Amino acid sequence: MPDEPTSPELEKLRFLYRVQCSQLAQTERWIEAELAKVRERASRRPLPEGPAFVLSYLRVGGKASADSVHLGDCRMASHHTKPLSQEQARQAITSGGLRACEICRPDSELGVLE
Question: How far is it, in rounded angstroms, from Cα 53 to Cα 99?
């Protein structure tokens, strides 16, 4: 094979081509790594939602005593709570003799008038 003609300018351009190919390969690796991160984040399941209603307990004489009904995310509920279904919360407020929290108003959410 005969030698190709060359020039200093042609050698510079070939060098530039090799550098750009290397940079393109690096960029492609970065893209793949970022795609893997995005796919991994998308595959995570969202956190389960908490209960819609909770029964708050207070300690009276060393025993737990049901105190009030709250919305599940109410900060006024004590640390000792029990999840309630919508029907259980409605029953606790209407016939269970428990009060509804005056801050989060679960009675309004349930459509109960006290």
Answer: 13
Cα 80 from Cα 56, distance rounded (Å): 6
DSSP state of 55: E
**Token couple for 98:** 């428990």
Choose among 95, 102, 99, 49: nearest CA to 74.
102
Phi, psi of 111 (to 5 degrees): 75, 30
The DSSP element (H or E) to which 32 belongs, if any, is helix 8-43
Burial 92-110, CB ≥16 within 10 A → b, else e? bbeeeebebbeebebbeeb
Q: What tens digit of pLDDT does each residue of 4-19 get?
A: 888 999 999 999 999 9
| Domain spans, the chain | 7-44, 53-110
Would you say the pTM of this structure is higher than 0.70?
A: no
- Cα–Cα–Cα angle for 100, 78, 95, nearest 5°? 30
